[in-house]
Design a protein that fits this description.
It is a single chain. With 81 residues, the protein is α+β, with helices and mostly antiparallel strands. The chain is 42% helix and 17% strand. It contains 3 helices and 4 strands. A two-stranded antiparallel ribbon has the order 1-2. The chain has a two-stranded antiparallel ribbon with strand order 3-4. A hairpin with a 5-residue loop joins strand 3 and strand 4. The protein is elongated.
């Protein structure tokens, strides 16, 4: 689906209400603008950015890698365990 918005004084953009509802964007939420290599721009909520980072991390280390495992490895590296 395509939505249109207009840039107004001060560089402000009003995100259409329907799109805000669909994405769960609320007043006061912080958004992240990501510029693609092709010049496109995507807008993400902080929750989306965190979820993307977690997904990339899981892809690198696997789903069964836990904080406890990480801490055990670090303690072993530091000679503490």
């Amino acid at each position: 689906m395509t939505f249109n918005a207009k840039v107004i004084t001060g560089g402000k953009i009003v995100i259409p209400a329907e799109l805000r509802r669909e994405l769960g964007i609320k007043d006061g939420d912080s958004l992240v603008f990501v510029r693609g290599d092709d010049g496109s721009v995507s807008i993400k909520t902080h929750r989306q950015v965190i979820a993307d980072g977690q997904k990339q991390f899981r892809a690198m280390v696997g789903n069964d890698y836990s904080v406890d495992q990480f801490l055990r490895e670090k303690r072993a590296d530091w000679g503490e365990g």
